[in-house]
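Please decode residue identities from the backbone states below.
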């Protein structure tokens, strides 16, 4: 998150904002090839259920969707299929900082004969879209990697139409003390070792640290409100290991 000195955190390290953007981009280039496999291993496949739950909130098949940090296209794929089942032609833009993640997502969609999705590369803090373009803005397990979260939230509000909906799925703070302790041990020891098995322990140590640095549910909800969204709410999944945050542009 931005501060007066234009520094932020890359995991536990304090770095200049411009440096973080480069570090995040490089990190995801390194993990792109095993990203989906690692998601399954780290969560025991539960991330698929979290995303299914998240996408139930995308209930307008005619909506124009911007899927930010959406390189692997898990949200895009679900919304595309929902729209097609409803007889609509999906209008979806996948936006990501990292070219390798976008390439991975494009290949996944092509393999499933999902065509017509737009892919755009860039920074979430400076979206290359006109005001009031989209009905939905989604970000799934990506916002904690943004260099300036508040700037990204304001950009989300800018590009949403009036009545548009912001939806974020992100790791959060478990409510139960015992669950929180168990999750902390798992994150500290199991996830980095899985990263080592696939040749990139440092990347997954960063991912664990980025979760710890991310605001609590209430703190993040306050940030969403401060960026201008109304009717802000959140719902915990799996005891608060992850949370779904929502807000509307009026």
């Amino acid at each position: 998150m931005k501060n007066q000195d234009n520094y932020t955190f890359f995991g536990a390290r304090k770095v200049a904002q411009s440096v973080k953007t480069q570090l995040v981009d490089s990190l995801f280039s390194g993990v792109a090839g095993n990203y989906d496999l690692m998601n399954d291993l780290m969560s025991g496949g539960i991330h698929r259920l979290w995303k299914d739950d998240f996408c139930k909130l995308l209930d307008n098949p005619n909506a124009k969707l911007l899927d930010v940090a959406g390189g692997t296209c898990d949200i895009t794929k679900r919304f595309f299929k929902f729209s097609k089942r409803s007889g609509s032609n999906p209008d979806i833009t996948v936006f990501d900082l990292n070219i390798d993640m976008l390439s991975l997502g494009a290949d996944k969609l092509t393999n499933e004969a999902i065509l017509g999705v737009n892919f755009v590369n860039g920074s979430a803090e400076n979206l290359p879209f006109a005001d009031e373009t989209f009905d939905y803005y989604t970000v799934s397990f990506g916002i904690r990697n943004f260099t300036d979260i508040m700037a990204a939230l304001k950009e989300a509000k800018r590009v949403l139409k009036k009545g548009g909906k912001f939806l974020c799925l992100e790791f959060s703070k478990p409510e139960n003390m015992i669950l929180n302790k168990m999750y902390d041990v798992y994150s500290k020891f199991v996830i980095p070792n899985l990263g080592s098995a696939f040749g990139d322990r440092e990347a997954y140590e960063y991912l664990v640290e980025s979760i710890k640095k991310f605001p609590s549910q209430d703190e993040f909800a306050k940030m969403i409100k401060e960026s201008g969204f109304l009717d802000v709410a959140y719902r915990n999944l799996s005891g608060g290991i992850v949370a779904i945050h929502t807000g509307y542009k009026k």
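Observation: The chain has nine helices and nine strands.
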